[in-house]
Specification:
The mean pLDDT is 84. The chain is built from 11 helices and no strands. The chain is an all-alpha fold and 302 residues long. It has helices at 2-6, 12-41, 43-64, 76-84, 94-109, 112-141, 150-178, 180-197, 204-232, 238-267, 270-301.
């Protein structure tokens, strides 16, 4: 949010690129280390160590982050003193906060530009979670196919993340210069074509090229949607707009992983499920492209 506030529409994606590169660097190390540990010490032991690392990180965050620091203890007579001085107690419940958020998001969704990119982001994460998080590991480790080991799968994901680390600044500049909508369309086109092609890859070289293009598309989508929403939403509503965008992505991530896995089991064929994800993303990309074209045409007429 701070990056979105201090940047301008001319350099917003470029300003966000270092943050996303740092995120990608973490996701590059994680799969590689996890794969090596799974092969050498076992899957259960690897999960135990990951759980311990999360616990340690929780304790560190509790001590360092302002939001989670231990606050002074309050006593009942403090509340009585507040009421005597005319101060109102904050009794907002979770349900009230949820209703307020829905009301604010409804106002944002009245803007056709926000509505379009939020829907596109949801479809993107639906397709990505189902293909990259659910199907791709199964395709890579299929005994009748590539039959990669856990270490090799970790290296694959590490390589995909390294592409994002190296290419994020360059592609973010492309998004700033050519337009965020074009970056979204170009990124989705790369990902969907890679999804459709992957089942036909028969050796590691073909897989490497396909997943490299896939990573380039994901790099585009790591900054362009957030930068686009930050551009079209007023500064005082920017935090709500970004929250709405990320919520749509989270819902798509949740439904995509479960839905695609269930569809693959029902079909009994991972290749068909992967290509179905590609078809979904192609359809969403075509809809978003048509919407952008009509919007530009209306602007020219006015």
């Amino acid at each position: 949010m701070t990056i979105a506030d201090i940047s301008t529409p001319l350099n917003r994606a470029s300003t966000m690129a270092p943050i996303m590169s740092a995120f990608a660097a973490g996701t590059a190390l994680g799969p590689a280390i996890g794969g090596i540990m799974a092969d050498h010490i076992g899957i259960s032991e690897t999960f135990y160590l990951v759980g311990c690392s999360y616990l340690a990180l929780t304790l560190v965050n509790r001590g360092l982050l302002e939001e989670t620091k231990v606050k002074p203890t309050t006593f009942p007579w403090n509340d009585v003193h507040k009421r005597q001085n005319g101060q109102k107690e904050n009794k907002e419940t979770i349900a009230d906060a949820f209703q307020n958020a829905i009301g604010q998001w409804s106002e944002l969704m009245s803007d056709v530009r926000v509505r379009g990119v939020v829907a596109m982001n949801g479809f993107y994460w639906f397709a990505l979670s189902g293909s990259q998080m659910t199907l791709l590991p199964l395709l890579l480790t299929d005994p009748t196919g590539l039959a990669l080991s856990a270490t090799s799968v970790g290296k694959v994901y590490m390589g995909m993340s390294l592409v994002q680390v190296m290419c994020n600044p360059t592609l973010a500049k492309f998004a700033d210069k050519m337009g965020k909508e074009k970056a979204i369309l170009f990124g989705c086109a790369l990902i969907s074509s890679s999804m459709a092609t992957l089942p036909f890859c028969t050796d590691t070289n073909h897989v490497a090229v396909t997943l490299g293009l896939w990573s380039l598309g994901s790099t585009m989508l790591s900054t362009a949607p957030v930068a686009y929403v930050s551009d079209v939403v007023h500064a005082e509503k920017r935090a709500r707009g970004i929250a709405l965008l990320r919520t749509a992505g989270d819902v798509g991530f949740l439904l995509g992983a479960a839905g695609t896995g269930a569809f693959a089991d029902w079909m009994g064929n991972l290749d068909v499920a992967m290509q179905s994800s590609a078809g979904l993303l192609v359809s969403a990309t075509g809809w978003f492209a048509a919407r952008c074209f009509l919007e530009k045409k209306l602007e020219q007429q006015n």
